[in-house]
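Final paragraph of the annual report: two paired records, presented back to back.
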Amino acid sequence: MSKSSKCPMIHGAITSPNAGRTNQEWWPEQLNLGILHQHDQKSNPMDADFDYKKEFEKLDYFALKDDLNKLMTDSKDWWPADYGHYGSFFIRMTWHAAGTYRTGDGRGGGGTGSQRFAPTNSWPDNTNLDKARRLLWPIKKKYGNKISWADLFILTGNVAIESMGGKTFGFGGGRNDIWSPEEEINWGKEKTWLGNERYTEGRTLTYPLAAVQMGLIYVNPEGPDGNPDPKASAIDIRETFGRMAMNDEETVALTAGGHTFGKAHGAGDPALVGVEPEGAPIHQMGFGWKSNYKSGKGRDTITSGIEGAWTPNPTKWDNGYFDMLFGYEWELVKSPSGAYQWQPINPKEEDLAPDAEDSSIKVTTIMTTADMAMREDPEYCKISKRFQENPEEFQDAFARAWFKLLHRDMGPKCRYLGPEVPSEDLIWQDPIPSGDSNIDIEKIKELILESDLTISEMVETAWASASTFRNSDLRGGANGSRIRLEPQVNWEVNNSENLKRIISIYENIANESKSSIADVIVLAGSYAVEKAANSPVPFLAGRGDASEEQTDAESFAVLEPYADGFRNYKKDFVELRAEEMLLDKSQLLGLTASEMTVLLGGLRSLGIGDIGLGIFDENNTQLTNDFFDKILDTDIQWEKVGDELYEGRCLKTNSNYKATAVDLIFGSNSQLRAISEVYASDDSSSKFTQDFINVWVKVMNADRFDVT
């Protein structure tokens, strides 16, 4: 059909951003409730009863490892392996899958196979990893549903290290794949790749971000914003790796161990490299970064812009990284791509690296500015020197740090699958002793009843304990009863003086009933709901109590809520809207919009709300839908009286009410109002009660991986 004869048409559906204006574009401040409905059955091609754990148990694990090992040296013409070995390429793929993890909100990491999707599949730091994933496809195809992409990405890195003589600490499978991008993760507000609008005055990185620029995994290897200053780079490295759960020793071990292998790629002009996979034309079939520089592959590859190997033996585990780092003075130069890098002054013949394609050709090794930080920063230098002098200690430190990098977002050890799960318990796994599932529940209820604790006190304590759970990295929750330990017992949101009084009562009940404090906390809250609802609330016993020795207090500090809309709490210095933070917490708890709505409304009816905000009935002993009645009552006129604070006056009764933006959003937001109307309806009383109980139990048991 000629252009002149084509009929003007638009899409009936908004199939791409250019097809039509979305609601979010019309009203950019509107809550994005879509993050609560990701990764549901509609986007999942697997059957509803698909059980990955059962499929993994059918896997011939060591046959898979053998196939991966063979792949390492099976160089393909369409993307040849440097030095004839793909090991370093796959290590980078694995590292960049797991390395997006951040402690602030537990998001990112390699636990979902998300590197297949935007935006990370197209980040500048992941240039050419589309080829690594495509190299794995024949193996994934062979083993099918018995190995997830997420597990395959991680295991491949382990095999790569082992194939080059390195040691690994172990591997735990069990990562379920997602089937669409993780839309909930805020990677930063920058609108350009490698943009940097994430630091405040004094170069403080915006919480909870960890990477220094948009599209990077960690730090800029050339130095902060491209400034080749090793000491300044060390500051960025320490903050970024710290926000990814790594201390100084782990940081040095990972940096040196990872750069023992392979090379960086900056063979020519980066302007000759095409667009990333998500922006590439359809006929490239998911490949991006098509290069017009010479062959575009092998020794002609352009990735980071830095060019060269770190060690003389880039396919062998050794101490070459430290020997080179401390064996020479280094000069600042630029790569063929124009990137800042460092090269040794007058290197010996034996300290030259082979060319990526022809081992008879020798080339100089390099260090990045980030590598030079391992020498120039006093603390990093001290650790690096120790590792150089003690190779076995270095190898063990790397193996442990690598294992932590790959498993930090997997939750408790009981989730790990496979024959190579290490037996040693590690404190960052948040170990919890086994509990007793055969406790006398009725006796505990009698003791709770005798305690004279109020329904609100029991409900809020159980909520405070269980709602620390994060579905992102599967940390927190009621199991372990860490609410009685530092730092949780003294968190501002927990009203520590009253909490300690309640915990003391629960400890006595636990001692008398020979049960765990964790079970008593949850049972008391559930018993309170049961009384208030006049309906049974299921309870699953068997929680254990963690000790101080089993708890890394510093690592648990990141679980402290800056805001908890379910309790109408928000720290004074937090600038984000409280209703946005409610949405964020709900997503971390794995709640849908309906579950969030009924849970908050029910908690308000039971007296859960800071200084009475959002509590519209003085009778806090009954579970009712009164919250929704008031929020939807058109006779109540609301006025703003402070920062996110509102007062309402009923025109009929002259009654006054106080609420926050978190409360009013359930009458203001059209989607949440629609859900609230369901629970406020005259014929929905039993539905409201049962739905509240269901979501209450869901939160209380969210961390029970020992039984689910």
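The closing record of the year follows.
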Amino acid sequence: MKAKIGKTLGAFVLFFIFLSPSVNAAPSRVGLAIYEVASGENVDYLKKVAKESLGASLQARGYSIVDLSFTEDEIKKRGLAATLKKENLDAILAGSIVKVGNTIQIFSRVYTSASLSQPVILTSTASSMDGLLGALGNHSQLIVTELSKTSVPALAAIPVENKTPPPVKTVSLPTPAISTPEPKPVKVKTPKLKEAEPLAHSKEQIRETFSNPASPDYTWVSNIQPFEARGVAYGDVNGDGQKEIVLIDLKHVYVYEFTRNQIRLLKDYEGSSNDQFVRVYTHDVNGDGKEEILVSNVNRGQAASLALELNGDQFKEVAQNSPWLIKVLRWKGENIILGETFTGMKVDYHDIHQLKVENGRFKDVGKFEAPSEIGLYGLQAFKQVSSDPEQILYLTPSGYLKIFDPDGKEKFKKKWSSSDKYGGTSNFIRLNQTNMFNEVEGQFTYFNVEPISWTGSDGHGSIIVPKNDDFLKNIIGTRPVVKNTWFTKLHWEDIGMRETFSTRKIDGYFADNIKVQLPWESQPKLLALLWVRDKGFMNAMGTFKTVVALYDL
């Protein structure tokens, strides 16, 4: 594969040298950093492939390339502004390559003197190694467009200054190969130089995953976020009419603009040194049409949840230090806030209440009737058939899915339980878990992952649930870590609940997932938060990095 890429790379660069005259009157100086590679496989050679391909393509377009023998993080330590000045650069180009399964995502960040704090992020996708060089070619065109700040025409439309290039008989521009259900003849066209879009897969293509291992399950993956995200939410939190992605780690809230093929950090909020954020949601708590950010939080062993409002570029605490762990649940056609008190003690019998935000705090407005064995996290609404009354779906901490039926008296009784296990969590806080006798039963306190439920087009209920496999926990001195993860879909049929689909395994861990309706998609998608697993056992003691991925439901 390395030899194949190297051989093709030479012809690929020659192709661009012939067809791409200079677009700059005076060549701009661009510093090219070392591209980092994130993958569970040994593909470090992609660093050299990315640097040589992008560098050669930019040189062919008239840019002067300065080889920076440092990664993006190393350049930041030295100072971006200082590097621009020292090397007399107009821009610094840095980035990363993410390989999960067969799909390869290319990310570039363009730093100029005017965008040191918020670089422009560009992304392109290849569905396999065979399509990588084509994706790098298209990616270099995106970079040129950004550097020149003008629209770059298609190759056939570029003026050649009355010179006819030598005919190219056998070399053609490779493009990312995307599998289709039924191969059809395709006319070869000159690729348009436009912003890269995420891979688009139909449901039929996704169903063929098992018979066609080259087909990835996710349709898009974000650039790497250099922190260990614990929760994800989606809502219009700044009132601009567009929904944002909200992520949390243990002490921060991050708000991102989300376009078709990238996320861009808009604003972040830092909690106190003792905060340990557990979950995040968006919900309009005061009826003004703008959603607030609700953060389930533990501080010094006690629940201390908060609600944040983003006004312009400033966060305002609408509620704080709430003694409840919280979540937002879609129940009987509306979103409601649920809460459960938490004092660090292991609970076998749960007491969940409905809450509202009033006068700067979360106010108890009544008990949420659910069996006492059901905890706050893992709880979802469900209907086996659309005509049924609202049922409760619960993923137990031990991994079993259960469905509870209402008995007509605001009570619920168990109707179904899975024989297989699902879930598996590494979402923990460093807090000794004690029993009713104050005896320590564990070094960490874990919070359950959530299933997703909805009613399918046939009127029957469907469930998507992560399956995080083979994790360590309650071992002093080690981090909880998941080696393999995937999603499983279950669907209620006349004969009962059946597994209908499982995604391909990924080296990592699904920390959170939500169902979203994106403005450019006709059908809802699954937005998943994935920790990328580092190589080696010892690296599990560090901090995981995070990507956001989209899946078809």
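Residues 7-26, 150-216, 471-479, 535-541 have pLDDT under 50 and may be disordered. This concludes the annual technical report; the extension proposal builds directly on these records.
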